[in-house]
């Protein structure tokens, strides 16, 4: 990870990204001051500070974090849980793994503060099975925090007790969907549940549960430590703080970047990523597998929730995948539809059957066997998935399709038989 | 708390009870929203997504079955966006569905086909991607065709949450999703009780009764066969539904006429052997009370329940009455008593049962059910199959005149008529046991405490100074709760009635499609009307039964009775392991 801006304006504890992260290092860089601050004040004050900072969920949905904390807190007294969603599964996204393997204590501290805010005594980190090194680092970090009195009973002598367990996912993309994740921890199939009731009211084993992404929780300590005013100054009027961007594809410097909100995608690709390795920019996929494909002229859009929303760009988990003109947008979209078809839980019709039909048409198109009417059907199936699928996965699975049909329809039509003189001839009997 | 909410439905302000879904609210106001995975008695699944509507302010369409109406909500159930979405979802389902509508057992009553017609489906624009999975024809009762499954989950829901048998699960993911027994096993290899509740709630032809109409036609067409038919008590209050009449229509007389028109040589009544069951089972209870036999005594009329206890609680089998079910008692008598009386060789007698039940097909084929030296019952048709065979024969059910059952196996009482409803066997037994024990006439024959759709019902009856506590359960989930109490030594009952299907036989797995709790209530009410309308309402007052004992059986629990009318059940494991 490297950033062009100085560490004073960084949410993440820079300087720790070497070897195995130790608690001592983390504390040297100001770690756990936030927890001490939080515990000396009221839970309401913590929520108030996070609310003032304008932190929004970094997992993709961008829900205001303070509102979620308050919803869990508002339940009648009783057992409640904090769950860290570390089922990072978006292809091209690697920010959560980075946080867990390099700054695990920042996550643990964020969870402890969140737990204090909502009144939870138990937390879980749901780490995907494919991240064994992150699981190992988090285990060691939990043990170290526990030994130092930063987890477990009576944290820092405050009377507040909170402990964390690691839960290894069973290997399904869908388990990143919060209700499917709950089912998975409960030992059931990782399939989404009906909402309402929302997890904030009726979550793990029926108890109020706070579920947040790794990056979201890791944002909490700096906010509590350095204040909401400092945090708000990092972003724009609409989107506050910074965002971790997983930059990959045909750029010179691929990697993870912490960028302040308001940075344009062009800056991310050219200033942070050093521009393209070769060729010309063809398209950029923003937001991971469930994100959108945009042409170069959309890149002056700033990384900002409103600005992106207006243009139909989903920031999602913050993946940016750059494609030069040697790549086929259709192949890229096909790969993502194949991915979703594999990962669909199969519960609802639009997602299960819509992805099957969409996949068929894209494969047919790439094989030069589709006709223009197939493209219309592809669009209709995708609309149906977006309109009517049961959960966010199915609704978002068509994003790459819809955006590619919007910007790159010519590429589809050029591959259709009735647009192409050189179409394969019908086999004769 | 406000008990109503106002919201805007298709541009009109309407008032509905608070807490109901958009789907329910729309139906209250005459707006039909299509559904497939929805079932009024089941939990909300929201899988199929054909019930989507527009809610103002929401980006996506909302599943109306899963969205509660909120005050001030603006809902549209009909818009170009909704129509396109619903039509596309139907098209997506059809692309993965065999286009065998004309040769499907659900032709004419398939919920998917009905929607396709309503939505003017003229073509499937997507690519046909049908499955070629093997059919499960492993049991005598049910056929499972996974290729027609639309993954709505209604069968799995009833199997898990009503019957709690847990046989059908949703497996795998994505397009590989299947609703099936575990590890691709056949129904014959798992602890399926063949109750057919899955078939009763399936919207399409993915699981259905095994059709035995051909074997019945073969017997009827064979001049060498003397074909007799018996009709279960629950069929007379449901068969009219197969011909478009409302649930709860009593059609006893027309049913007899219809069966005569089919060509049966004798039309008899399972109600006769229901009365006989009361005599045998009632005396078995008295015998156990006197001799210290295993108590509580549990009824054995319901073959799904019997198979269930064999699989799940075999150690409690000594509590189960040794009486065969009325269906099997009838078969045994038809090929012994009736054979003797009529002078017809039992080898030439072919016994057909009309049952509300799919498990009865299995029961009739249990190898031990051949006391006369011949299989007691040769063929079983469900109510639905009866509807079909009557249509094949061109019987115009609506215009039939009433007719009466044949002697001697056709005379019955009100006690027998209520065998078809939950609590009916208990009530019938109490009417007889009370009078036998006390020697006094029972003034009020109606034991209302054991009536109704409540899952487990209890009553205490005073029998000449001794209080006898009884329990009634219907649906195997409720049976499980009683069995667990019994196993824990916490059930202080003397007599327990259990019926496999919710509502008893009127809610059987072979009953007309569209059975819901509302329909069950109508059929139950009709069964009690049949009882109330009969001159004789106690089994031991049935003159034909008295004659049967006098001429043939001698007395209840006699040697002949034991030989013909009683049986033993066996321990079945939960899983059949293949070698």
TrEMBL record, chain A:
Residues 330-375 form the NADH-ubiquinone oxidoreductase 51kDa subunit iron-sulphur binding domain. Keywords: 4Fe-4S, Iron, Iron-sulfur, Metal-binding. It comes from the Bacteria. It holds the Pfam family NADH_4Fe-4S. InterPro entries: NADH-UbQ_OxRdtase_51kDa_CS (IPR001949), Nuo51_FMN-bd (IPR011538), Nuo51_FMN-bd_sf (IPR037225), Nuop51_4Fe4S-bd (IPR019575), Nuop51_4Fe4S-bd_sf (IPR037207). It comes from Anaeroselena agilis. This is NADH-ubiquinone oxidoreductase-F iron-sulfur binding region domain-containing protein. Belongs to the complex I 51 kDa subunit family.
Automatic annotation (TrEMBL), chain B:
Residues 3-81 form the 2Fe-2S ferredoxin-type domain. Residues 140-159, 184-212 form the 4Fe-4S ferredoxin-type domain. It comes from the Bacteria. SMART domains: Fe_hyd_SSU, NADH-G_4Fe-4S_3. Keywords: 4Fe-4S, Iron, Iron-sulfur, Metal-binding. The keyword 4Fe-4S applies. The keyword 4Fe-4S applies. InterPro entries: 2Fe-2S_ferredoxin-like_sf, 2Fe-2S_ferredoxin-type, 4Fe4S_Fe-S-bd, 4Fe4S_Fe_S_CS, Cytosolic_Fe-S_CAF, Fe_hydrogenase, Fe_hydrogenase_lsu_C, Fe_hydrogenase_ssu. Coiled coil: none annotated. SUPFAM superfamilies: 2Fe-2S ferredoxin-like, 4Fe-4S ferredoxins, Fe-only hydrogenase. Residues 81-120 form the 4Fe-4S His(Cys)3-ligated-type domain. Pfam families: Fe_hyd_lg_C (PF02906), Fe_hyd_SSU (PF02256), Fer2_4 (PF13510), Fer4_8 (PF13183), NADH-G_4Fe-4S_3 (PF10588). CDD domains: fer2. This is NADH-dependent [FeFe] hydrogenase, group A6. The lineage of its organism: Bacteria, Bacillati, Bacillota, Negativicutes, Acetonemataceae.
């Amino acid at each position: 990870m490297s950033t062009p801006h100085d560490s004073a304006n960084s949410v993440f504890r820079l300087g720790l990204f070497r070897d195995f992260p130790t608690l001592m290092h983390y504390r040297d860089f100001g770690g756990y001051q936030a927890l001490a601050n939080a515990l000396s004040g009221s839970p309401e004050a913590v929520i108030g500070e996070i609310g003032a900072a304008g932190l929004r969920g970094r997992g993709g949905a961008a829900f205001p974090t303070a509102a979620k904390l308050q919803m869990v807190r508002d339940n009648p007294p009783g057992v409640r849980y904090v769950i860290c969603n570390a089922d990072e599964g978006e292809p091209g996204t690697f920010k959560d793994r980075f946080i867990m393997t390099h700054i695990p204590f920042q996550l643990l501290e964020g969870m402890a503060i969140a737990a204090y805010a909502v009144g939870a005594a138990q937390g879980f980190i749901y780490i995907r099975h494919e991240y064994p090194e992150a699981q190992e680092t988090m285990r060691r970090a939990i043990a170290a925090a526990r030994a130092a009195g930063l987890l477990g009973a009576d944290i820092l002598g405050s009377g507040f007790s909170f402990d964390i367990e690691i839960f290894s996912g069973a290997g399904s993309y869908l388990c990143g969907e919060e209700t499917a994740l709950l089912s998975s921890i409960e030992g059931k199939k990782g399939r989404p549940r009906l909402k309402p009731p929302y997890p904030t009211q009726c979550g793990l084993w029926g108890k109020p549960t706070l579920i947040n992404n790794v990056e979201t929780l890791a944002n909490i300590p700096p906010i509590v430590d350095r204040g909401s005013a400092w945090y708000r100054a990092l972003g724009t009027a609409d989107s506050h703080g910074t965002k971790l961007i997983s930059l990959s594809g045909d750029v010179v410097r691929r990697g993870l970047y912490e960028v302040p909100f308001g940075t344009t995608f062009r800056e991310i690709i050219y200033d942070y990523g050093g521009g393209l390795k070769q060729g010309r920019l063809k398209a950029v996929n923003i937001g991971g597998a469930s994100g959108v494909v945009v042409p170069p002229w959309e890149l002056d859009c700033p990384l900002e929730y409103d600005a992106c929303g207006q243009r139909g760009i989903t920031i999602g988990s913050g993946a940016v995948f750059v494609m030069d003109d040697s790549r086929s947008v259709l192949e890229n979209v096909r790969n993502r539809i194949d991915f979703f078809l594999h990962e669909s839980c199969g519960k609802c019709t639009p997602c299960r059957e819509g992805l099957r039909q969409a996949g068929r048409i894209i494969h047919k198109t790439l094989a030069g066997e589709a006709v223009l009417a197939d493209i219309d059907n592809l669009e209709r199936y995708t609309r149906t998935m977006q309109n009517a699928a049961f959960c966010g996965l199915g609704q978002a699975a068509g994003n790459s399709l819809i955006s590619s049909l919007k910007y790159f329809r010519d590429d589809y039509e050029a591959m259709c038989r009735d647009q192409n003189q050189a179409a394969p001839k019908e086999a004769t009997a | 708390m406000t008990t109503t909410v106002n919201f805007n439905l298709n541009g009109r302000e309407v008032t509905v009870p608070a807490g109901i879904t958009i789907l329910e609210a729309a139906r209250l106001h005459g707006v039909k929203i299509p559904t497939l995975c929805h079932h009024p008695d089941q939990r909300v699944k929201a899988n199929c997504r054909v019930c989507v509507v527009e809610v103002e302010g929401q980006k996506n369409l909302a599943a109306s079955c899963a969205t509660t109406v909120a005050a001030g909500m603006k809902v549209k159930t009909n818009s170009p966006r909704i129509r396109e979405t619903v039509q596309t979802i139907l098209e997506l389902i059809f692309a993965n569905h065999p286009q065998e509508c004309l040769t499907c057992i659900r032709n004419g009553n398939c919920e998917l086909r009905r929607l396709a017609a309503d939505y003017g489906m003229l073509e499937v624009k997507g690519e046909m991607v049908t499955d070629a999975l093997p059919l499960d024809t492993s049991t005598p009762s049910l056929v499972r065709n996974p290729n027609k499954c639309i993954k709505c989950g209604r069968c799995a829901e009833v199997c898990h949450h009503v019957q709690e048998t847990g046989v059908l699960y949703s497996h795998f993911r994505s397009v590989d999703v299947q609703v099936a027994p575990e590890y691709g096993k056949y129904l014959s290899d798992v602890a399926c009780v063949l109750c057919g509740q899955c078939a009763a709630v399936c919207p399409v032809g993915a699981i259905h009764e095994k059709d035995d109409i051909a074997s019945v036609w073969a017997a009827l067409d064979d001049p060498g066969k003397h074909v007799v038919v018996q009709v279960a008590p629950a069929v007379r209050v449901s068969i009219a539904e197969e011909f478009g009449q409302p649930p709860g229509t009593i059609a006893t007389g027309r049913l007899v006429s219809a069966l005569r028109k089919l060509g049966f040589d004798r039309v008899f009544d399972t109600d006769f052997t229901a009365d006989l069951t009361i005599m045998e089972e009632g005396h078995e209870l008295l015998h156990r009370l006197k001799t210290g036999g295993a108590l509580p005594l549990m009824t054995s009329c319901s073959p799904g329940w019997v198979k269930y206890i064999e699989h799940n609680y075999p150690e409690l089998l000594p509590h189960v009455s040794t009486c065969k079910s009325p269906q099997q008692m009838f078969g045994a008598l038809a090929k012994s008593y009736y054979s003797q009386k009529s002078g017809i060789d039992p080898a030439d007698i072919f016994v057909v049962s009309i049952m509300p039940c799919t498990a009865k097909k299995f029961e009739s084929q249990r190898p031990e059910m051949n006391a006369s030296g011949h299989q007691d019952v040769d063929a079983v048709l469900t109510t639905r199959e009866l509807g079909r065979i009557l249509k094949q024969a061109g019987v115009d059910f609506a215009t039939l005149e009433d007719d009466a059952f044949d002697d001697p196996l056709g005379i019955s009482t009100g006690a027998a008529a209520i065998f078809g409803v939950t609590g009916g066997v208990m009530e019938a037994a109490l009417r007889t046991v009370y009078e036998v024990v006390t020697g006094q006439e029972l003034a009020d024959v109606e034991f209302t405490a054991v009536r109704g759709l409540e899952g487990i019902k209890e009553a205490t009856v005073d029998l000449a100074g001794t209080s006898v506590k009884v329990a009634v359960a219907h649906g195997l989930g409720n049976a499980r709760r009683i069995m667990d109490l019994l196993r824990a030594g916490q059930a202080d009952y003397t007599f327990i009635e259990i019926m496999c299907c919710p509502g008893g036989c009127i809610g059987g797995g072979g009953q007309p499609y569209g059975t819901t709790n509302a329909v069950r209530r109508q059929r139950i009410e009709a069964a009690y009307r049949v009882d109330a309308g009969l001159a004789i309402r106690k089994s031991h007052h049935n003159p034909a039964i008295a004659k049967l004992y006098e001429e043939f059986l001698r007395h209840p629990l006699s040697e002949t009775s034991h030989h013909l009318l009683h049986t033993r059940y066996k321990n079945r494991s939960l899983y059949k392991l293949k070698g």
